[in-house]
Amino acid sequence: MSKAKIPQNLQTRKSTLDEIDARILSALKSDARLSISELARLVGMSPPSVSDRIRRLEAAGVIRGFTVDVDTRAIGYQIRAIVRIRPLPGKLHLVERLIQERPEFIECDKITGDDPFLARLAVHSIEQMDDVLETLSEHAVTSTAVVKGTSVKKRLPPL
Hints:
Helices cover about 35% and strands about 20% of the residues.
């Protein structure tokens, strides 16, 4: 296998990351299961040096963890939705807790604007989605859009 090339969009700009760090991050984003030896070969360094860099990136909070990308449809969650959630006055913390307690909400961001929460939901059916949203109905107004497809998968920002 040849050395990993740094993608054009990962060029270092006003960052504490150097080109090697960017190559390591790019390679790990493509395949987080790479062995240290394989990763070292891809970036043109020794395994101990790559291991040290990964530890440094973890300590700096750049790398927060290594994860698996699961297709929710492949495990039976046929419907994905994006839900904008606007708590009723005085219900912000209660609604946030309700979102955190429902495992069907697989991701939720606090955002600016009229709707303080933007959540991603994965459910088996429309009926299940209605059930999840019903738990919020006394405390918040929701606006739901079913996801038809993904145009841009989660990726690294320019480094």
